[in-house]
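Side project, low priority. Logging it here so it doesn't get lost.
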Amino acid sequence: MPYKDDALSVEWVASDTALSRVVNGWDTRIGIDTEFQRTDTFYPIPGLYQVISGDRIFLIDPMKISRWQPLVELLEDPGVVKIMHACSEDLELMSHHLDAAPAAIFDTQLANAFQSRDFSTSYANLVLQQLDVALGKHQTRSNWLRRPLSEDQIRYAGEDVHYLPLLFECLSTRLRDLGRTEWFQEVMTDKGRFVSGDPESYYRSVKNAWKLDIPQLNVLQCLCAWRERKAMSEDVPRSRVVWDEHLYGFAKIPRLSHEDVRGVLPRPVARKYTEQLLEQHRMGAGNEKALELPTRPLTQGQGAITKTLRGVARELAEQLEFAQELIARKREVEACVRHYFATGQLSPAYLGWRAPLLADEFNRLLQNLR
């Protein structure tokens, strides 16, 4: 292999038999990363899986393998620790490509956030900070579906898992010393899983959806669910079907016509989807089901208390010297305020590990404003 290291050997895995053989020899702690492309598709296309186990790196070629069960079983084995960095996109790929839900994940980016003010440290920066190793220029714009891979691509792929076990040792030791292992594990339970979006609920994320009345929301919900399923079935980005803003505009029209659609959409798109859009619009207009309403903007008073609560959380994060995003993200604090005004209790996000840190102060500040 072009990628070499004095302490490591590298194996290219390009057959079902080879995959089964190497997986059976892996340790109970591995580092794993993926390379993929997602420019013209709804779903990511796998280009490479990289694994480090002990002193060996394995580069697994998805184009040559059809029987993935040995890898799936290992990924889902809670007795095998999977060390990853910024794992969300990797988990999505594994869910779609392998139908796998990995267990026992240790995300080095998240672990670092509990002991650093930087919430989203890159892998290269983390390796430099923790191990004093400067990585080479990364191949972030590479075509990982091309074969053969270039020497630079293979070097980059190897480097991306090479240092994961060492980072695990450094970060897990520091978490233990700080007494934050349980905090990290609680958050990892949530962050270490991929949950696919529900087409039926997408309408709630459309900009300004809260401004629509109930009949219009029923139309928007129907149009969005159709668009999501269409993008999935054709494996194209949402924008290749119909944009959110167009669906929102159609939902505001009482009786959508061919002219309405053709006056907004590009001609090829209108030609392909007009009849389906009209049908979905009619279906939505006839719905009378109760929908979960989109989130409305906060009132002026709620906005003010949100700002105060975020300030409290940020000050605490500074004192504890960890990333403020762990406890003071705007959308989470806003959700907490909404939940409190509706129920008189803090939202679930501010229970668990956060409760001893913030619950008393949050409750004190909120109780007089409900």
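Brief comment: The radius of gyration is 24 Å.
Revisit when time allows.
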